[in-house]
Amino acid sequence: MEGYRFSLDFKVRDYECDMEGIVNNAVYMNYLEHARHEFLHSIGINFAEMTAKGIIMIVTRAELDYKSSLRSGDTFTVCINVERESKLRFTFVQDIFNSDGKLVLKAKITGTAINEKGRPDMPAELLQAFGL
User: Fold this and answer.
1) How far apart are alpha carbons 48 and 53 in whole angstroms?
2) By CB distance 3.0 to 4.6 Å, which of 27, 28, 104, 117 could disulfide with 96?
3) Where are the domains positioned within the chain?
């Protein structure tokens, strides 16, 4: 998918589907999180190392708009961009497309980093890695 900073391909597994035969709505959060972790890894951010430095990244808000459904065996792509939300918050703009390019889900996952004292803190190294 063009226009995104990162994308990751997936395939729906049988056990991710509900009684109607479609992916359970909660499973989409797992897809989004896994894609974010892979994105962070691709830009050199390691959660264990960040935590050891006293920088803990957290999600503060999740907005998901379901547009169409995925079924067992479907292949799809999660695409990601990162935006600066405020002085202390960033947002992962994530879209999921099926193999035909049809939009399945639009998400905005807002987060921040907190320091060892539990206070919001946006370290320069994180902003630099995000390109913000």
Assistant:
1) 9
2) 104
3) 6-130
